[in-house]
Specification:
By secondary structure, this protein is mainly alpha-helical. It has two domains: about 190 residues, no CATH class; about 70 residues, no CATH class. A three-stranded antiparallel beta sheet has the order 1-2-3. A two-stranded antiparallel sheet has the order 4-5. The longest helix is centred in the last third of the chain and has 21 residues.
Length: about 270
């Protein structure tokens, strides 16, 4: 940013036809992925709360949408996901936060492993229209605890001498907001429902845990039908879904080729 030679070269490249260089990046050109143990020294409070929630005796304590009511398989699958997510949050090599930023732009706090669950339903009145989505973002209060940890971490980062030397300043939440309650209210007001990472509506899980497809990507109980897209992920990964989609596609192609070569894919 402060290197005049670099700025001049970047400007010259942008003015070419077609435009080239770093100024052609419409969104962010830098990002960090940070694990929760590196974000908060009290991260075990969050992981312990997740494990406690997973073992709650009453399904009503899980903060799930009404569609889960009475469906033991969906509830069992969610409990299994909670235990897996607790391990991810405790893992110092598994990011919980993605923060992308660009020159002259603000940082964003992306929650990579939300616990809240919503629904994606067909529009029964107009079935060819987009599905009816109920995100239910932050319906699980533990998500807000993680959001709060992420926000305080980015606030500390913005106040480092390095970033302040580059002209960084805090525009929001703003210095006037300091308490947990004030910051949580600000986060709820400014949260974006989805950050281009839609997934997980046809999860690869056993049928008795609410799964839709198995490891071979076949839909449970259906012949000749596979799902090969980001809906098969049980939980959101700590990665961009574009390259994850390529990996799933490559794996699906390998599975199909192997089974066809053995004559086992005719059904």
């Amino acid at each position: 940013m402060l290197n005049e030679t670099f700025a001049a070269e970047a400007t010259a490249a942008f003015n070419k036809t077609p435009a080239q260089g770093p100024y052609t990046l419409a969104m962010s050109n830098s990002a960090i992925w940070v694990p929760l143990p590196n974000i908060s020294i009290t991260y075990t409070t969050i992981t312990d709360a997740i494990r406690l929630l997973a073992n709650a005796s009453s399904p009503s304590a899980l903060h799930l949408p009404p569609a889960y009511d009475g469906d033991e398989s969906l509830i069992a699958g969610y409990r299994a996901q909670l235990l897996a997510l607790a391990d991810l949050y405790a893992n110092p090599r598994s990011p919980s936060l993605e923060s992308a930023f660009a020159t002259g732009n603000s940082v964003a706090a992306v929650l990579l492993h939300p616990l809240s669950r919503g629904t994606a339903r067909l529009n029964l009145t107009h079935p060819f229209e987009p599905p009816v989505l109920d995100y239910r973002s932050a319906s699980n209060p533990i998500d807000m605890a993680v959001h709060l940890a992420h926000t305080r971490y980015l606030r500390r980062m913005m106040h480092t001498d390095t970033l302040k030397g580059l002209g960084a300043f805090e525009d929001g939440p703003g210095e006037a907001l300091q308490t947990d309650e004030e910051l949580v209210a600000w986060i709820r007001q400014n949260t974006v429902q989805s950050y281009m990472h839609p997934c997980c509506t046809a999860a690869m899980l056993p049928r008795d845990k609410g799964g839709v497809v198995g490891p071979d990507l076949r839909v449970h109980g259906a012949k000749g039908l596979r799902v090969v897209d980001m809906s098969v992920l049980p939980v959101l990964p700590a990665a961009h879904l574009s390259w994850t989609a390529y990996a799933v596609g490559e794996k699906a192609a390998d599975i199909i080729i192997r089974q066809w070569s053995k004559g086992k894919d005719s059904d």
